[in-house]
Amino acid sequence: MINIEKRSSTLDTYRLLNELSKINGPNVDGALLDRMMYNSEKLPPLGKEYWWFLFFDEKGENPLQMMLLIFRKYGGRILFNDKEIRLRDRGNNEFQAVTAGWVFDGERLRDLGDTNAVVRIKRNELIAEISSLKMTLVGGYPDYELRVGDIIDLDIKKSNFLEDREARGVFIPPFGMGWVNIFSDADGNILGKNFKGTAHLQKVVGITIFGPFNWGRIIFQNGSSTSFFCLKPGKDSKRYIHRSLTFYEAKNNEIVRFDDPMLKISEEGTRWVVEGKDRDKDFRIALDVYARKQFTMKGGGSQVYVEYAVKTKDLYLRTKDRVITLVDVGRGVGTFEDAYW
User: Fold this and answer.
1) Do residues 179 and 168 touch, judged by C-beta distance below 8 A?
2) Share of the chain above pLDDT 70, in %
3) DSSP labels for 204-220?
4) SS3 at position 12
5) What are 174-200's pLDDT values in tens digits?
6) Which 3 state secondary structure label does DSSP give 134?
7) Closest by alpha carbon to 240, among 266, 205, 268?
8) What is the distance between the alpha carbons of residues 218 and 225, in angstroms, rounded to a whole number?
9) Which residues of 212-221 are buried (b: 16+ CB within 10 A; e: fewer)?
10) Distance between CA 85 and CA 189 in Å, rounded?
11) In 237-280, which ranges are continuous DSSP H helix?
12) In the chain, which segments carry CATH 2.40.370.10?
């Protein structure tokens, strides 16, 4: 059993990864979600952890979207976007990390900068800074408040998503990766503009090398959503080591899970196309890119993360019972991520 209160050793980090890998689904309680969100882990070599906060608005031709990141890893320093970042762990849930973020405000992408921040974690409170602005996340599942200086002020509340939380993990000692996701509603203001949409709060802990992958999550106007993920051996590889695809259909409260799907993910100019198939289901979604932001990391391994704000051009889902298209669920907006060495 893991220590819900705090981390104390590398062994506790391994216990946490084991616990998350056993859950591997939505049956995770608030205590474990808060323990993940409001703790930093003791990291061995190859260890890394990050907090990743993503928000989609509901309105506009190209809806407002925002991402905030806090990242740290084992070791004394990294280069993040060619800027040297020191990573000293000061103990007692205080550490140096990189904070970064961006906002697409409906017209253009605004970079919030890269900061070598000191992060402090207290009970149900995470305190950092980005570009000299204080950043705080306070609360506990399912209610949070996110503030960044005087430019971001959001209230985050429980949503009506079919699955509003999950814990996932892969544990093959001495390697492992574990994460929690919280899917919520959010409202407030960002850069002086009213915001009403969805929030995705994620915390990840890993003891592994960096690796190429694609990930995406799309929210549709009627409350339906879809998510997909593939881990691959190389940037342009069409052979996937791990793959998943799920569609959450809100009108009929139905979760369509693809069992070990055959996935094909391709870039066609400024469009990403994701196709999936298993024994009795077919899926295709075309995503038009309207904003792009790239992060690079070097030191103790290298990784490039390219994040795309996307909206749906086309959707086709066929199950043994019916067909679902954009006519049924409305327009979708979301994020597509392309990560590689």
Assistant:
1) yes
2) 98
3) EEEES----EEEEEEEE
4) helix
5) 999 999 999 999 999 999 999 999 999
6) strand
7) 266
8) 5
9) bbbbbbbbbe
10) 30
11) none
12) 210-341
Q: Is 190 helix (H, G, I), strand (E, B) or coil?
A: strand
Tokens of 141: 């599942």
Can you give the C-alpha Rg of the chain in angstroms?
19
Return the amino acid letter for 48.
K
- CA–CA gap between residue 159 and residue 163 (Å, rounded): 9
Burial of 94: CB neighbours in 10 Å, binned 0-12, 13-18, 19+: middle
Query: Counting every residue, how long is the chain?
Result: 341
**pLDDT mean over 121-132:** 97
C-alpha span between 237 and 231 (Å, rounded):
10
pLDDT digits (tens, 9 = 90+) for 307-334: 999 999 999 999 999 999 999 999 999 9
Under CATH, which architecture does the 1-208 domain have? Answer: Beta Barrel (2.40)
- Residue 129 CA to residue 51 CA, distance in Å, equals 13
Give how far Cα 289 sits from Cα of 48, 131, 149, 337, Å.
29, 27, 29, 11
Q: Taking a C-beta distance cutoff of 8 angstroms, is the pair 229, 244 a contact?
A: yes
CB count within 10 Å of CB 248 equals 20
CATH number of the structural domain 210-341: 2.40.370.10
**Neighbour-count burial of 307, counting CB atoms closer than 10 A to its CB (0-12 exposed, 13-18 middle, 19+ buried):** buried
How many Cβ atoms sit within 10 Å of the Cβ of residue 266? 10
| Cα gap 12→19, rounded to integer Å | 10
State how far the Cα of 197 lies from the Cα of 4, in Å rounded to an integer: 31
Q: Other CB atoms closer than 10 Å to residue 197's CB: what's the count?
A: 20
Distance between CA atoms of residues 146 and 202, nearest Å = 14
Rounded-to-integer distance, Cα 28 and Cα 169, Å: 12
Nearest to 303 by CA among 80, 44, 117, 50: 80
Phi-psi region of 89 (alpha: psi -120 to 50; beta: other; left: phi over 0): beta
